[in-house]
Design a protein that fits this description.
Elements: H1 6-24, E1 29-39, E2 42-53, E3 71-72, E4 75-81, E5 84-86, H2 100-103, E6 109-111, E7 114-115, E8 123-124, E9 127-131, E10 137-141, H3 143-146, E11 157-159, E12 172-181, E13 185-191, E14 197-201, E15 218-223, E16 227-243, E17 249-259, E18 278-281, E19 287-295, E20 303-307, H4 308-315, E21 317-318, H5 348-365
Parallel strand pairs: 2-4, 6-14
Antiparallel strand pairs: 1-2, 1-16, 3-4, 5-19, 7-8, 9-10, 9-21, 10-13, 11-12, 12-13, 15-16, 15-18, 16-17, 17-20, 18-19, 19-20
Length: about 375
């Protein structure tokens, strides 16, 4: 996969930012991002500003005002037909069935399994995190998995498994703590002490650290519905408008797109119920993004994820590897020698023996 220099990325990012707001506001535009240019269904190695539209019309049917330029400041412009939406809406259509290993009630609870607020159907437990101030353990998922309503308040129960997968009030393992909807889709819940949560998936892969997503990065995720799937990042720095039902249409930012790896065919990298899963860099094993949406329509369903570090920062939480190091133990106190006694300090038995010999000598000879 082609890589680009820091100077190329900085220039392309500046150009993207100069058109982002205006282009996203245009009718029919669903997202704008920076990524690989596509040509006749095949991905090229060229860096481009990409405009995602609900319907891509022939050039001859568009007015001059409706056309996007072929390039801006030397950066090619690519128009992609794609519409994005949540893979779960409260009260929405039934989710796809999930494998039993993802819907079981676990103790302790691994990552990548079914969870949810009682008002939603089910989503995915993404990561174990810690409050940055108190170091209290919490769990991370999406707003629309842990919250699901603009009327939600902290303290609401979070079940494992989620309601659709057989969860009941007795399955409450955490309570809603804090959340955000725009510019990210994320929430954390504090553990209630009934069950421990692991920092590894059902398969045993640990998710304890974080790194930044990069174009061409090979990634994997563990979700409630599609289990462990693989893809690669073909677009970054995305802004997209997403319909959150009663919560309205929100602009979600700092998003990247995951697509099937070249040569694997028409596969799904995510489906309904996978929301909340963490995408992981295959090379380093570090988390890069919080999955929250997918492409609407025919397969392959391209996945959208919020960049993980900005989510952690906004929610004021840390990944396990970001926890501060424990303090060094206090060194053993050093007892200064007695200035009147030239005898060097001796440990244990030998010190007592020497003191006995000195006492006997003094009693005999003064």
């Amino acid at each position: 996969m082609n890589t680009f220099s820091p100077e190329q990325m900085a220039h392309a990012t500046a150009v993207l930012n100069s058109v982002r707001e205006a282009w996203l506001a245009r009718e029919g535009v669903t997202a704008v991002d920076l990524g690989f240019k596509w040509s006749q269904g095949l991905m090229t190695g060229k860096l481009s500003i990409r405009v995602h539209v609900a319907q891509k019309l022939p050039v001859g049917e568009l007015t001059e005002a409706e056309l996007f330029p072929k390039e801006v400041a030397g950066i090619p412009v690519d128009v992609i037909e794609a519409e994005y939406g949540l893979q779960l809406l409260p009260g929405g259509a039934q989710l796809e069935a999930a494998p039993e290993a993802r819907t079981n009630r676990y103790n302790p609870v691994p990552l990548g399994v079914s969870v949810g607020n009682p008002r939603i159907t089910a989503g995915t437990l993404g990561a174990k995190v810690y409050d940055a101030d108190t170091l209290q353990p919490l769990v991370l998922s999406n707003w629309h998995i842990f919250v699901g309503s603009p009327a939600a308040v902290p303290g609401e129960p979070i079940w494992q498994p989620g309601p659709l997968d057989g969860g009941y009030p007795t399955d409450t393992f955490a309570t809603l703590s804090r959340f955000v909807l725009g510019p990210h889709d994320a929430a954390v819940a504090v553990l209630n002490g009934s069950r421990a949560v692991l920092s590894e998936t059902v398969e045993g892969d640990t998710i304890e650290d974080v790194t930044a997503p990069q174009l061409g990065m090979l990634v994997w995720k563990c979700g409630r519905t599609t289990e462990r799937t693989e893809g690669f990042i073909d677009g970054i720095q995305m802004s997209t408008s997403v319909n959150y039902g009663a919560a309205g249409v929100r602009v979600i930012q700092e998003v990247f797109r995951v697509v099937p790896r070249p040569g694997v065919g028409n596969v799904e990298v995510s489906m309904g119920g996978d929301s909340g899963a963490v995408w992981v860099d295959e090379a380093s094993g570090k988390g890069v993004g919080l999955h929250f949406a997918g492409e609407i329509g025919n397969a392959p369903e391209h996945a959208l994820a919020n960049e993980l570090q900005p989510v952690l920062t906004l929610l004021n939480v840390l990944m396990p590897a970001q926890l501060p190091a424990p303090p060094e133990p206090d060194p053993a106190p050093i007892v200064p020698p007695d200035d009147d006694d030239p005898t060097p300090p001796m440990p244990g038995f030998w010190q007592r023996l020497w003191q006995g010999i000195k006492s006997a000598w003094q009693s005999l000879f003064g």
